[in-house]
Specification:
The chain has 684 residues and is of the alpha+beta class. The chain has 23 helices and 24 strands.
């Protein structure tokens, strides 16, 4: 699949075949989902796709959608085209500067020697695709591209052999280079998307200790686990499947599933999910859902489906090029035919047709969107926001409502310890103990003390006991860092030095500029609310502090449903979240942003990632995106005006291919210069 036209062809033509009810193409994953009669086997479906001009294979043969060979081939072709373009352009500059006679002929021959093998190699992805399409009596975007490149190359070779004035090897190679650059970036984007899903499923343990009836344990691969098995989950181990705790009490790190930063205490009867990490004592779990039935696998599936629905979004450039390319090549053909009928001869007619092709080469049109997006993305990057997908700016500009997760998004998402009551000696001891543990509260305490410039004390015999905490010996005195005596103090720990005990409280504070960010969004006409998987009480506290409406304890499915409901009302929601449970919502939202501290999968699902403790990049992204779309519209306006002026001149034979090449280059430079105005947009 190469373009929106290929998607339309598959989804339109496949259901016309007997036994096929519906087909849905995922351009990003290069997959086609077909609802069909069970009597139709994989071979018949593969043959049906081949009949439409698309080679296919069952997903089971390539479950991860590995395209490494195609990606490497594109990268090699891009490198060859880049090398050829630079060298041919150097020779062309000499010709444009006035080289004549034998010197010009020599440069043309040198250009031919470089360009012919470069075009033959770098053009293969387009030629092969075009041939495949034509062989099955259909067209795609590669057909006019291949015709244009081959025509320009053929006429250039003829001009070189006959000692003519103009050769267009530079235009052909340059066109291939820019087209290959787009294809290579697209392949890289798809690879990253798949990596996000893979990283999500990688959270699940690859195996589990299954307890036999005689009490012995054996390691069983996650794919071989069955519901009803009893497994032993050791402290520090991730769960390989969903289940119910049968024996033991512990605390689980469920942050990636629920977004809740505090460890969740579990005991007999508690439901636990694959991917959660057992932080304290060993527990025995009876499995209820395994492999593809786990909550984690369900989230991955939701993300994939949400991504599919968004892949139907047709980008501005695609919409333009889908109409533009056939129109341009029709004009070139008409120019050739018209001048032949007028008796101009095949050489003059073909030269005019190529001039039409070159002068209307959609470089300015093609640059209208990406040039503005690249400059805007660079400006935002300098302000701490990384835009992953160029089309994200287009969607960000259209958002009219914002939904925020709480923990890690509106708040910093990490327990911040209040160490103000500790004296220097207690601080040093607390740091020495805390930095030996990966418990979330220990990490938060260590970070707070390190920010205060505390140096750790010398502690001996430090050891961590699951469910109890850390103990050690300092100058002969027993010291410990552990669970507070009062159960109500969930986000707190107790520091014990000898017989002295001190409680250290933790809090998850709001980001300092959260209120200012919401006010900035309101000025852009975007209303905000909270959509969180956290418990109702802490969500209500944040909602009251910021004056927002809130929905708490929302599952990934509930978040997805909330977004779909907004879309059904015609709204375009912006989702801002960080937890793994936000992944499907981030993928399904009209646009999405995640903080740099978000889970890998959430960052992969989001359109943009902001870095640092400030939330203001979210409002900044919306403002810059709207300015970017204004610049894009200006660029399109200029490109259309340029073509309205240039095309008639070329059709009338008033433009030589050399002038056409210069005009095309100037139009591209104007678009780039206009886009550069966005460079300072993030500063004002």
């Amino acid at each position: 699949m190469k373009c929106a036209g290929c998607i339309g062809k598959i989804e339109r033509e496949l259901p016309k075949l007997p036994g096929i009810a519906a087909a849905r193409a995922n351009f990003s994953a290069k997959r086609v989902a077909i609802r069909h009669d069970p009597a139709l086997g994989e071979e018949a479906l593969t043959a049906a796709l081949l009949g439409l001009g698309f080679e296919a294979q069952p997903v089971a043969d390539n479950p991860l959608g590995d395209e490494s060979k195609e990606r490497k081939a594109l990268t090699r072709a891009l490198g060859v085209a880049g090398f050829g373009m630079m060298n041919v352009m150097l020779l062309s500059v000499s010709v444009w500067s006035g080289a004549d006679g034998a010197t010009r002929a020599l440069f043309h021959w040198l250009s031919a020697l470089i360009a012919l093998p470069v075009i033959a190699y770098a053009g293969r992805p387009f030629f092969a695709s075009a041939w495949m399409a034509l062989k099955h009596r259909r067209t795609n975007m590669d057909v006019p591209i291949s015709i244009g490149v081959l025509l320009a190359t053929g006429l250039s070779l003829y001009e070189t052999i006959t000692g003519g004035e103009h050769a267009f090897f530079d235009s052909a190679v340059m066109l291939l280079f820019f087209l290959l650059a787009g294809r290579a970036l697209d392949a890289e984007m798809r690879t990253r998307t798949r990596a996000g899903i893979g990283a999500l499923l990688g959270r699940m343990s690859k195996s589990a200790s299954v307890i036999a009836p005689d009490g012995s344990t054996r390691r069983v691969a996650a794919k071989d686990l069955d519901p009803g098995m009893m497994v032993l989950v050791a402290a520090g181990e991730a769960l390989a499947a969903d289940g119910e705790v049968v024996e033991g009490t512990s605390a689980l790190d469920n942050a990636m599933l629920t977004g809740e930063s505090a460890p969740e205490p579990v005991g007999p009867g508690a439901l636990v999910h694959a991917g959660a990490i057992n932080l304290a004592a060993p527990i025995r779990v009876r499995l209820t859902r395994v492999a593809e039935d786990t909550a984690l696998a369900e989230i991955a599936r939701l993300m994939d489906e949400a991504g599919q629905s968004r892949s139907h979004y047709v980008r501005i450039a695609d919409r333009a090029s889908r109409l533009y390319a056939p129109a341009v090549h029709t004009l070139a053909l008409l120019a050739f035919a018209g001048w032949m009928i007028a008796g101009a001869g095949w050489h003059t007619s073909l030269t005019i047709a190529i001039a039409v092709l070159i002068i209307t080469c959609p470089c300015a049109m093609g640059l209208a969107v990406p040039a503005a997006q690249v400059v805007a993305s660079g400006a935002l990057l300098r302000r701490g926001l990384l835009v992953k997908d160029g089309s994200a700016l287009e969607r960000l500009a259209e958002c009219d409502v914002a939904l925020f997760d709480k923990t890690g998004t509106l708040t910093l998402g990490e327990p911040r310890a209040d160490v103000s009551a500790l004296d220097p000696q207690a601080r040093a001891i607390a740091l020495a103990l805390a930095q030996t543990s990966r418990h979330p509260l220990s990490r938060g305490l260590a970070a707070a003390l390190l920010r205060e410039g505390v140096a750790p004390a010398a502690i001996d015999y430090v050891r961590e006991v699951g469910g109890a905490g850390l103990t050690g010996r300092w100058q002969g005195v027993e010291v410990a860092l552990g669970r507070p005596a009062e159960a109500s103090e969930a986000l707190a720990t107790t520091l014990q030095i000898g017989d002295t005990r001190q409680t250290i409280a933790f809090a998850d504070p709001l980001r300092a500029d959260a209120a200012a960010t919401l006010a900035a969004l309101a000025r852009e006409g975007i209303a905000a609310s909270i959509l969180s998987g956290d418990r109702a009480a802490p969500v209500a506290v944040v909602a009251e502090a910021l004056g927002l409406q809130a929905q708490a304890e929302a599952s990934p499915q509930a978040k997805l449903a909330a977004l779909e409901a907004l879309k059904a009302e015609g709204r375009r929601p912006l989702m801002v979240g960080d937890g793994l449970n936000d992944g499907p919502a981030l993928a399904a939202a009209h646009a999405s942003i995640a903080p740099g501290t978000a889970s890998d999968a959430s960052q992969q699902a989001a359109d943009a990632v902001f870095i640092g403790e400030g939330l203001m990049p979210v409002a900044l992204a919306v403002r810059v995106a709207r300015r970017t779309m204004r610049i894009v519209r200006e660029n399109f306006g200029f490109s259309i005006a340029y073509n309205l002026l240039a095309v008639p001149l070329a059709l009338l034979g008033l433009v030589t291919p050399l002038v056409a090449a210069i005009a095309m280059s100037v139009s591209s430079l104007v678009v780039v210069a206009n886009s550069l105005r966005l460079a300072r947009s993030a500063n004002s």
